[in-house]
Structures are given as C-alpha cells and as structure tokens.
C-alpha cells in the first residue's frame, strides 16, 4: 500500500470527469455526464447511488470497471488505477468486479448453469471446480432445480437471480448493480435485494447499487450518494441523508418515501380547517417534542396533530409533525419558541 492510502477504501474517485460527444457537424455537442466527482466507497459496504434519470449514475458506475474511460481525474479500484489503462490491462481489475444489469443480459443460447459457468471458463477454472461453484451459486440463489433450463423459461425475477449468480461466480470483490430491480415487481424486487444483502453479508462483497427508488436505497444501503447533473450533491450514511438532507435534490428524494410533510394542496386544506397556528415540527432522535407540548397543554394551549409521520432508520428516528396550536396568544408564542429551541419549526399559517 502506498503512503496515504486507506485500506478501507475499495473504490476511489478523485475529480472524475466524463464527457460524451454527441451529434455531428452543427449538431455536435458535448455532454458532461460526470462532472468532477470525488468520493470513496468502503470495503464491505452497500453503497447506493441515487438521482433522477440522466443525473449520471450509470456513467459513474461504469467508470469503476472502465466500461467507460474517464475524460479526466482518477478512478482507483482496490489501490489500482483504472484510468488510463488499455483493455488488456483492465482485464485483471475487471475480474474483481461483477456486474448485474437492468435487462439481465443473459446468454439465451446457454442454460442457467451455462450462464453461471461462463465467467469461470473465462477465468480459467478447472471443470471440477466450475461444477462445484455453479452448484453452490445456484443453491445460493435458490435455482438448483433450474440448472438445465434456458433463460426464456424463467420469470423476470429468476433471470435476475441467474444474473446475480453469474456476477458472483468468479468471487469478485465488488458487485455493481445497475437499477437491477426496476424491471421487477415489488415482491421480486425485495427478493433480489435480499440476495444482494446476503451476498454482502456472507461473502463480504462490496455492493454499489444504482437506483432511482429511495425505498430500495433506504432498505439496504449503508451509505448513499445523491447525484444531480453529473455531480454528487450530497453523500453520507443513509440514515443521515434521510433524517437531515442538506440539498434540495436529496430533500425531494427523501420526500418521495417519507410523505410526512403536507404538500401545497394538503396545506391549503389544513389551513382552512385550522383554528390556531399551524407549525411543521421536525422530529429527530433525542428531540423531545412531546414534553414541550405536554407542558404547553398544562398552560392551556391545545394542540392537534393534523399531519405527519415518524420512521426509524438504522436505529435513528426521524420525521415531521404538523401541529395546530390554539390558546392564549402569548402561550402559543412561547410554545413555538420552545419548540424552535429544540428542532426546526416552520410556521405554515398564522
Ligand atoms: N454513450 C453516451 N453517449 C452520449 N451521451 C451519453 C452516453 N451515455 C450517457 N450519456 C448522457 O450522459 C448523461 C448521464 O447519463 P447516465 O445514463 O449516466 O444517467 P443516469 O443517471 O444513469 O440515468 P438513468 O437513471 O436514466 O439510467 C445523460 O445526459 C446521457 O444522455
């Protein structure tokens, strides 16, 4: 290991840039898909990459195995530079990286076992070792009975499981999953996620998961990067990003799964119904909103919880409550002031 290198880091981007040229002649233009990304993915974690369509997620992940060469900056996998390598030089690095795709990309002319075996043939495994490994993997993904079937005889979820078994076959250190679950129904999605989590726990494999579904990220990622227009606008432990998003993009994503704040239509209804002052109070781990409200009630302030939700993620509570406060004006003022000293309070109608 070179000085300054961190053994815990398995993928490192430093000011990584990827531009594409599209069109010809007058229509020629440059698209910056990845715009100066610096981040580190730790060994053994499940790392989620989220963002709207076109944000640059797939391109960023394809830089990891050199499927797309960077235009600028550094990409390192397990201490080895990926940028500036020839296809030949990339081959040993790619053996450490498995990939599963949204569209499965199975060989239709090979059986399930043949698909899983394929990377082992390429990696030069002996026939006996290949057979044992294929059996082990098909057991792992619950498809032992299907070894002799062809992909067209399988359901979408089963095909995806074959894809996972194939990606894991040659014992890679990293698994890249590109929106691997979005073509599947919710139940199958959960099944695939459970498999990724098991692969992560049982084999210690680092998983990099791209998705635009926050539910998916919330259920399995340890840390998450939020991308917008080629940049990572926010990054950190999933619980932190969910409980206290710092950017508008992250806030919007979080709002899609935790609908705990009223939208404008709901707010106008609540304002019409409100008898006093409406406030939206953020709920966080260790913030005792209840005590403030109980004390206020003892002073004659009435409170009505009219909207809200609180969830727990990685043992941290978070959410928000919309409260209608009525009573003596100065007592209501005092209650809002006390709440504001504890947490973020937004008054939404006076
Ligand atoms: N091969 C390519 N040639 C030209 N432009 C490309 C190419 N690949 C990606 N892009 C452009 O780069 C930008 C980022 O695309 P990318 O596929 O990485 O986004 P994404 O966040 O993964 O989107 P999605 O969620 O829709 O898959 C987009 O503007 C896209 O059109």
UniProtKB/TrEMBL annotation:
An annotated GO BP: amino acid transport
GO molecular function terms listed in the Swiss-Prot or TrEMBL record: ATP binding; ATP hydrolysis activity
SUPFAM superfamilies (alphabetical): ACT-like (SSF55021), P-loop containing nucleoside triphosphate hydrolases (SSF52540)
Gene3D superfamilies in the record: 3.30.70.260, P-loop containing nucleotide triphosphate hydrolases
Domain ABC transporter: 11-254
PROSITE patterns: ABC_TRANSPORTER_1, ABC_TRANSPORTER_2
Keyword Plastid assigned: no
Pfam families per the UniProt record, alphabetical: ABC_tran (PF00005), NIL (PF09383)
This protein's UniProt keywords: Amino-acid transport, ATP-binding, Cell membrane, Membrane, Nucleotide-binding, Translocase, Transport
PANTHER family named among the record's database cross-references: AMINO ACID IMPORT ATP-BINDING PROTEIN, METHIONINE IMPORT ATP-BINDING PROTEIN METN
Protein name in UniProt: Methionine ABC transporter ATP-binding protein
Species annotation: Kocuria soli
């Amino acid at each position: 290991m070179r000085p300054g290198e961190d053994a815990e880091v398995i993928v490192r981007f430093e000011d990584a840039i990827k531009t594409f040229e599209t069109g010809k002649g007058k229509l020629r233009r440059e698209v910056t898909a990845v715009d100066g990304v610096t981040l580190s993915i730790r060994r053994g974690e499940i790392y989620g990459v989220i963002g709207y369509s076109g944000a640059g997620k797939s391109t960023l992940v394809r830089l990891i195995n050199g499927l797309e060469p960077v235009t600028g900056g550094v990409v390192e996998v397990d201490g080895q530079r990926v940028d500036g390598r020839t296809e030949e030089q990339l081959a040993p690095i790619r053996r450490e990286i498995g990939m599963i795709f949204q569209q499965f990309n199975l060989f239709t002319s090979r059986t399930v076992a043949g698909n899983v075996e394929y990377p082992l043939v390429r990696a030069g495994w002996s026939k006996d070792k290949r057979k044992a490994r294929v059996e082990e993997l098909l057991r792992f993904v619950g498809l032992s009975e299907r070894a002799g079937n062809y992909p067209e005889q399988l359901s979408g979820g089963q095909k995806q499981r074959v894809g996972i078994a194939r990606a894991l076959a040659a014992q890679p250190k990293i698994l890249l999953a590109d929106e691997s679950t979005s073509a599947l129904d919710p139940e199958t999605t959960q099944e695939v996620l459970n498999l990724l989590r098991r692969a992560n726990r049982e084999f210690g494999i680092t998983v990099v998961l791209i998705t635009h579904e926050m539910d998916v990220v919330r259920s399995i990622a340890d840390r998450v990067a939020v991308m917008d227009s080629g940049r990572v606008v926010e990054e950190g432990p999933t619980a932190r990003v969910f409980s206290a998003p710092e950017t508008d993009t992250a806030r919007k994503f979080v709002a899609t799964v935790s609908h705990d704040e009223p939208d404008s239509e709901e707010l106008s209804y609540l304002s019409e119904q409100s008898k006093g002052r409406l406030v939206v109070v953020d709920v966080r781990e260790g913030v005792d909103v209840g005590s403030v409200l109980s004390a206020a009630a003892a002073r004659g302030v009435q409170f009505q919880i009219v909207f809200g939700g609180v969830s727990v993620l990685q043992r941290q509570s978070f959410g928000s409550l919309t409260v209608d406060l009525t009573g003596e004006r100065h007592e209501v003022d005092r209650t809002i002031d006390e709440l504001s000293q504890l947490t973020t309070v937004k008054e939404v109608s006076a």
